[in-house]
Amino acid sequence: MHTYSVLRERNAILYFSGTALSKLGDKLYIIAIPWLIFELTQSAASMGMMFLFQTLPFIFISPIAGVLADRLPRRILLFISALLQGALVSIIPILHHLQILHIWHIYILGFLIACIGAVFSVVNSTVVPQLFKKESLIKVNALHQFIDTSSVLFGSMIAGILISKINVYNVLFLDAFSYIPIAISILFLIFITEESPKKSKSNSFEQLREGANFLVNHPVLGPFTLLVLIVNIANGALISMLVYFSREKLLLTSEEVGWVYAGAAVAQIAAIIIVNFQGNKGNHIRLMLINLFICAIGIITVAFSWNWQTLLLAVAIQSAPVIMFNVLFKTMRQSLVPSHIFGRVNGLIMMLGLGTLPLAGFLTGILAEVIDIRIIFFSLGLISLFAPLRFTRLTRINIKEEEVM
Questions:
Q1: pLDDT tens per residue, range 115-150
Q2: Which of 79, 87, 205, 251 has a C-alpha 20 to 30 A away from that of 95?
Q3: 97: domain CATH number?
């Protein structure tokens, strides 16, 4: 099945239109909020506090969102969460126009927006197998990743232009209104499998434990989740300290750092194209392990970079296979987890993955005060290089035999 044939489907048009608008709105918000906080406080500590309020919900709310996705109609959850996000975002410019906006308003609203956003993100990912046929999941996930990556490349640029032209408060208003067409598109989605979740007499904690037991005991998803946790330590360290490394060790200018990020985005788009053409061919487990191996080589290469060109190459080597891995891992769990428990399992995996990244970044920042950052990158790269070797036994498992019918 070619990508263009998927895009001709009604669900694809609605789903990806909403996804593209949602991702673009996210980038407007992500740029506008730090800009606004700096205008109000000129404080790095305030910006760091906002980052904390925006990160924690995605770690702690994701498993709760998974439970909700398995207990309540997912269409309704998506619709309500989209409208709530838009309403909460709009409060910030409204308070400004009323001349009563304070920094603590932004903290509280940012936390609530992140909580609702975590619900939307988990449910939006969970609902994919109910909208598309199993044989098209890789292409769907690849296109979703392409939209996400492209929004990083172009969304920040659009946000910067809009802030300079119409001011940050109007940008937030524009972001708020973008949720209306997203919510409308959700109402017209057609579910090809049963939408209503299975009823259960157990409480939320027992249902969450059921999802955790499924994940831990699954012969493929359990080991791969553990592997992701290990590898994400190195990835989190690199992501969080890349600008510090660029400025401290390589003495790069802002333009050169921009070229590094742009080059990485181009490499990621190339990776999406490759995994899209790869489709359902070959052993996905072997390909996923190879991607992690190449990613580790990229992290080690970063440690030996000496200018922006070598850093660009190293970051491209690190980030492109991560994108391929994400598409394949998302497709794998969509194929292997039953629909009635998918929300919980998906929420737990997202919580574990998201939780590792900021923790790794925080610890790396502390270590970098006493240990050369090159040594940290090299050491973590070596760990990530050998970690996949412990999981090569998984290549002997036939995923098709494990797939949910």
A1: 998 899 888 888 888 888 877 778 888 888 788 777
A2: 79
A3: 1.20.1250.20
Q: What distances in angstroms separate CA 305 from CA 114, 139, 195, 246, 333, one per listed residue?
A: 36, 34, 50, 10, 36
Q: For the chain, how many structural domains are there in total? A: 2
Distances from the Cα of 139 to the Cα of 132, 134, 188, 324, angstroms? 10, 10, 22, 12
CB 324 within 8 A of CB 271: yes
d(C-alpha 119, C-alpha 373), whole Å: 36
Range of the domain at 9: 3-197
Is the same domain home to 179 and 147? yes
Give the residue, 145 or 399, on which the prediction is more confident. Answer: 145
Q: Is residue 331 part of a domain?
A: yes
Query: What DSSP assignment string belongs to 49-68?
Result: HHHHHHHHHHHHHHHHHHHH
Confidence (pTM): 0.72
Q: What is the DSSP letter of 200?
A: -
Closest residue by Cα to residue 33 from 203, 163, 121: 163
Spatial separation of the C-alpha atoms in residues 52 and 189, rounded to whole Å: 34
Each residue of 233-291: pLDDT tens digit?
Answer: 888 888 767 777 887 888 887 677 768 877 888 888 888 888 877 655 667 888 888 99
